[in-house]
Amino acid sequence: TTLRPTWRNLKDEKSGWYNSLVETQTNERTRRKMKILETLERLSVRELTRSAERLISEERKNQAQLIAHLAEISRRKVHLDLGYKHLFDYCVRHLGLGEGSTWRRIQVANVCRRFPEILGALAEREINLTVASLVAPHLNEKNVEDLLRTCARKTKREVEKYLVSLAPRETVTAGVRKKSMKPRGTGSPVGVFTPQETRTPTK
Question: What pLDDT does 25 receive?
């Protein structure tokens, strides 16, 4: 008589039935992976590169769609209804996304309703997710088209360097100097910016 497996059997890693089940599932996953690799081995170089390009195109389009979904989920606060305090937690714990990619997607989702052009640039492979997340906080109504066009097909380092060049330089007000460091007890805090002035001697 074949014993019917119970939940307790499933949790008992020492049971023969459990080990047999795990081994069967593992072998099936391995066979599927090997089948994919064997299929790719039969492709020509041209077919292989075209297939990779097609997958990238589909991935970018799906990525833009996913970010649009996250923006709508955030707007409706769906993650709160599902018991997640933050959209980040929903993405990581519920959708199973990586923490780094989740942060980047949320950066883009925060602005894509206001600047949908960023989703178009992402879907059309003009920019990747990393670049999109770097550019997102800098977008405004005046620069969105120029900024996306300038950053198209650039690397992360190139975009970071370009964004730094856009930051306004700090200026020092005329007639303001940094006081030299003084020993304790001389009356002024160390490193405070104070206007040049003539001090009146204390009586």
Answer: 64
Averaged confidence pLDDT in the chain: 79
Q: How confident is the model at residue 200 (pLDDT cuts 50, 70, 90)?
A: very low
What is the helix (H) or strand (E) element at residue 111, kind and residue range?
A: helix 99-112
Neighbour-count burial of 85, counting CB atoms closer than 10 A to its CB (0-12 exposed, 13-18 middle, 19+ buried): exposed
Residue 143, number of CB atoms within 10 A of its CB:
13
Task: List the helix and strand counts (H, then E) for the chain.
Answer: 10, 2
pLDDT tens digit sequence for 27-50:
776 767 678 888 888 989 999 999
Two tokens at 88? Answer: 């980040």
Beta bridge partners, 195, equal 176
Cα–Cα nearest to 146, from 123, 163, 160: 163
Three-state DSSP class for residue 109: helix
Task: Give the pLDDT confidence of 22-31 residue by residue, as tens digits.
Answer: 666 667 767 6
pTM, two decimal places? 0.66
